[in-house]
């Protein structure tokens, strides 16, 4: 891996003297690198990489796509240690792209933006602004976003330990570089822009391990259907659904940024600040309104503005300085926010110098909101040169502090993989393919002691006395339709005549019909278990019934699980708050609920051919849990 | 009112030669004003305002609070036409402040930041940066936020038609200036930073009228309990609860900004852009990642990225220009977003010039996301000078476009006041004071045909045969406690023994106990009606029962209402989607539900002594609606 970041010799294949070519820009940039550089171009420098006599650690390739396969063959022949292909025109174009076989050398790209190691003056990108050196390890699936970040970092006096652009990930992936940055002592925090995971399971294991020691901050693009399609033509990979992404990032202890602004704010705060250990925030401000907005934000993020000092609009540096002294006297504060707006008497620069002096020995987080735009570069730079975080908008500053606290308190809980609290045996027998009927599901489910409501399949004559009234009539789950939408369910039938009418209507559309008693009280729980390709089974819990889609009150985690993790997961949902006794209310049958969930997990872990198991709803009361509807789907061509 | 913005003569009371004083800054600023200026100061200029011989249109007062009452007496004697008191030290300090009687002249302040009319070079503030002229009418309850906005506007080449800082609002309020700006031809859009409403009902009437013709954009501070307290010491007024604020802004057709960034983005977009008439967005970009993030945001805000052209990272101005031509050929696009990141070949300035040329005659919204930070001021200024909106982050740009569309489509719906579809008669009889018992409520409720569940008050012997089983036992609503929290309710009792036990437990804590049948099926609806001081009655509808507080699935509107408005309000909630037949599901008893809500509204409008009427829940089925719990509270000292 060091061949990418500390090569002793670089061959630039496609070096160019034409200023409009990427090969020209790369050539100019790489000249600054203190290692040996060999330009390769039929009309300039070496004809082919094999013509170079010395050993080549790194080849950077920037030539039209159709020539790349031949050049790669040369690189292999030359035993080049590492290859980066900047050129585009491959899988990201779909059928129209040049096809590349997986190369037998450590390989980054194609369609990427290269790498950088700023402290060694290595930069194989064609960004307008060079990445400054610093402690952020950046991995990006977008080169353009990286060039934005290089410029941003330079302005904020921040920088990068290493930079990697992923491109199409034909060879190395984010996981390889994540591991490398995890072990890289120059990297304090790891930042990623991703649009998909090359290997979900690998990510879960690796990021869970690395996030124990370094913050991992992720911005994810392509989380809506429209964005996913746009992403596919950009990096030759389809984004996973937003729910999978969020579950994966949560469970691997990563912080997910919502927007580019959120991303850069988190990078700034985590790059510069010490740990935030509790939620007691002090504000010093010359501005009432912005401080109130910051207090609102703090309050909504569970930070407590224990002390706020308004020095008023006409304060000079002296009054600011006194207020800082006063606030610093109280050692119980955990973090500080200083807000400066530009008013006639505001001495912005000397106030900033006072801040630097006062906070020199304070080992707690401090952010300064300089609401001064481009009015003064100097004042901001006084702070930045002294490694004080500057975030112009106070609401965003507070959001950054809340993330620090979230990191301190929460990121090590429930990391992947959790302890598994049930055994996994070899499954006995095989399952039918596709959607199981209720009867098929029942015989499987009963082996796992899952409590099913008493159900009659109406494929033979039934007498009214066989029913428990009132009755529910519905299509068998093998029909697969959305129950409500397809009018596949009739609730609360109280007479034989009503049952007959419902039966007639259902029988017109569905081959198999079920009868169940109508349960008359209880809350509804959703339990979903799904094999996503490339991931462990994903467990989803939350509010059930018609409310599942309306309220989206759901929490997710990848298997394996145990009692404690299930309880934690339930507590993240609102139905979970009811289960555990909301506002002094009665607890529901917690033990039976958790047991049911664990048993369902055991089932899907034992039966690898089950693609999806969905219980919706299970009816919960203080003393019972009963499954009234479930769908089981197996793979059509099971392993 | 013109005396504030176009005074022919100004007296500055507290003009000062001491550079650290506000009176000095004001003096310097007012010198630039082309009207006549009279400094008043015992040691400099005129001793007292009454010493000035000519007529004074406007007095600006910046002296210590204790001298202000005397000076106001002078101003009245002098028949000054308008007075602004900048000085602080009054009601915002609570008891410690100097008390001022309501002055008998048009009066702004005290504790305010003055006014400005930039096109006439009038500026009575002490902001470091003068407010530039433009089309935004700004009213602010925070002077500091205004000084931030002045600086921001100068950088963005935007400006203000008028500016007003409200302060403590002893005289004029936001409503007076809102009316003025509504009629001011120089004002295209009205922006407000508020922490409370001086007169809620007045706001509703006025803003509803003005928002028909001009966008009103509001940033509201103090929406959390912590923020409300902070606000009180800032402007001598307590913020109303967030729910009231949001209801008031929605129903008066205003756009509510969530953050300072959101506020400035909305000001930029609405100040510069023409109307956005449909949701079809085109993106031209040299950056895949940022465009995907923008597409995600667009998709989540119901904008459709119908066309996205990625000119790739190595594009110069020529390729950008071609792409713009291509995109502009298709006349079906409604708005445009251009994203520029800084890469080696990016010709930022000539690309911006090309944008200006291509879009000169395009009368549709365009935003350029220059992800270039401070790399180039020139490029941004090329756009800004040509009145093209520049928002650096593409996700924020898209949010701005979505607000334009929201404005076009939605803001004129359901403005206050709606048509009232029920009569209001004089109430017959008076009500008891405080919390009504079930029996008291019942006799009132029945007059309005509100359907109550059959209820027995257990204040006399009752036989098991009198119950409908299963039974619910609960404390009478006059007890006032939170039912679940106080363990004041026992559900689903099936035996005489269970009823006895429950009764015994309840009787230990509550004087009056009710018995009702347990309803076994149905969805739960919350209906709240509340008199907030200074506002019309606020109606809240949404998910009921234990879910009310957990899901906060609530929508609100001020009375009066009618069938259509109730239906619109219900549709904003998720329970409403079920009522109207979610995903092809069965409709609930819509007519009966709407009728019940209207009747409850009639009740509270007729009985002015009712402070609060809360129905939670009403149980809804396909054929019925039944109130199982309700609380009615009347004012203790009724009018």
TrEMBL record, chains A, B:
| Highest taxon of source | Bacteria
Q: Tell me the leader sequence span.
A: none
What InterPro entries has UniProt attached to this entry? Acyl-CoA_Synth/Transferase, ATP_grasp_subdomain_1, CoA-bd, NAD(P)-bd_dom_sf, Succ_CoA_lig_flav_dom, Succinyl-CoA_synth-like
Gene Ontology terms, MF aspect: ATP binding; ligase activity
Q: Which Pfam families match?
A: ATP-grasp_5, CoA_binding_2, Succ_CoA_lig
Alphabetical keyword list:
ATP-binding, Ligase, Nucleotide-binding
- Give start and end of each CoA-binding domain: 4-90
Instruction: Look up keyword Ligase and say if it applies.
Output: yes
Residues annotated as transmembrane = none
The protein's name:
CoA-binding domain-containing protein
Source organism of the structure: Candidatus Beckwithbacteria bacterium CG23_combo_of_CG06-09_8_20_14_all_47_9
**Source lineage:** Bacteria, Candidatus Beckwithiibacteriota
